[in-house]
Amino acid sequence: MFRVRIPAASAPSSFRQLSTTAVRREEVVGTVGAVPVKRPVGGFRGGILGFLFGFSAASALSIYYLQQETKVASGLLLASVEELQQGTGKITSHLDRLQTVEKELAALKAGSAVKDDVTKVRGEMKKVYDGLHLELLDLRAHVWGVEQDLQKVVKTESIRI
Length: 161
Description:
Layout: E1 2-5, E2 15-18, H1 43-111, H2 115-160
Antiparallel strand pairs: 1-2
C-alpha cells in the first residue's frame, strides 16, 4: 500500500491510502456547466489519412523501383537474347561449312584411287612396259637380222660384179 498526501479540503484526514483493490470511492465533484471534451485535431481520421498517405507514397515508390528494376532486367535479357542469336548464327554458318567440306571429302573419296587400285594399275603398267620392252628387243633383233641379210646381199652383189 502507498500513502499519498491529499490536501485537507478534499479529505478529512491528512493521509489517504491508495490500494490496488477494486474499492470504489464515491466522491461528488461539483461542476458548473458542461465541460467540453476536446478532441485532438484530426483525431482518428488524421491517423487513417496519414496511414493512407504513407502507404500510398511507399507503394508508389516501390512500384517505381520495381519498374526500374524490370526495365534493367528486360534490357539485360534482350542483350542476352541478341548475343545468343549471334552465337547461333555463327554456329549455323560453321555447321554449313562443315557439311560442305564433308560433301567434298565424300566426293574426293569416291573419285580417288585406293591403294589396291594403285597397286593393280602399277602391275598392269609393269606388264605393258615389259611387253613393250620385249617388242623393242624383238624389233631390234629383227632389224639386226635385216641388216645382216642386207650386208650379205651387198657382199654377194659386190662379189658378182
